[in-house]
Amino acid sequence: MNSNGKGKRYIYRTEGVCPAEIHFELADDTLEQVRFVGGGCPGNAQLVGALLQGRQAGEALDLLKGIACRNGTSCPDQLAKAIESALHGSLSPARSFNVLSDPEPRSRIGLIGDLAGNAGDVDLIAAGMKEKGVEAAYCLGNVTGPRADNAAALKAVRENGLYAIQGELDWRFGQNQEIPGAAALNQKDRDFLVRQPHVRTFELGGGHGLAFHGEYLQRLPGYSDYEPYALEMNMVCGLTRFMEDEEVFPALEAMLPQFTARLIIFGQTRSWGRWTLEQTEFISVGPARDEQGPAWGLLTDAGGGVSFEIVRVK
Amino acid sequence: MAESVKALPDDVQEIIDVREWDMRTRPGVQRFRELKAKSLPSVALDEELVYEAIIPGQEELIAEIQRRFQRKNAS
User: Which stretches of chain A drop beneath a pLDDT of 70?
Assistant: First the structure.
């Protein structure tokens, strides 16, 4: 089931049922892409989603309302509440990409680039980060790989308490897309991926930071150039081609006063790099493993500024 | 930049079509790259990047517009 992007997408936080969220789209009052995320009976939930695909919202409400399962409600009943909230306007459409803010200011942040489903590297890197006193570790995607044991990698990410950010492949898995050649991923892992943010923001060294994977975010249904942080993405991905076109840096500098973030981190290019323009830092995060072995990035509050180093795991 | 263009006299306004691109947007960035511009603000006339990182004086801009208009209409 893939979105055609014509409808408005909603995310409803449930109460009293197993799945934490219900995702769905409404296009001209027609239901699409109904999905119960984060728990519950995956088979039944998929069946409900399939049966409701293309139904008019009013018709679906007649079927869903009042069904009880636990706590005086049920997954269908919660979906009915979600649809009514969307129709009445009390539930706003979801943004094209999810931004999650790190709740605590940090002084040492670890950065992990393309893990590509390598569970062994997760453990090695996490151990190295612990030695260096890292407070929070961000995986900039892709956590998964096209031909890897992705279930093991996701388990390792969860067990090591790393914060994942959706890369393009992670997003495709999360959208239940079939990836040619990729090992099957169960619904629980796909649900885990779809609930990870596309963008993570943070505070470090008194500055506001932004971490994301890359330009696929600009192709998400409903992407707006005026969403928070879209300016930074448009400049990094489109204007400078991930900072590789230095000829346009004068134009980038002219746009910097409009930026919200002063520390911008991305992972798409799978190469390490750092650029400083007018007190704004841009960091490209390399892959979690290259020809020299596992590697990760360490960002440190350097008293009013930020220091950055690439750490090689021996 | 668009303000200085809007302030052009009526006789100049009649011979031009003005399009302003917002550099915050993907279409703006795409147009910027198509013109092979490097700095802001930039002004292109007839698909040709003419002014970069400066706002030309009104007299200079009018003279350049009229020169191009006459050249196009001379043939």
Answer: 1-6
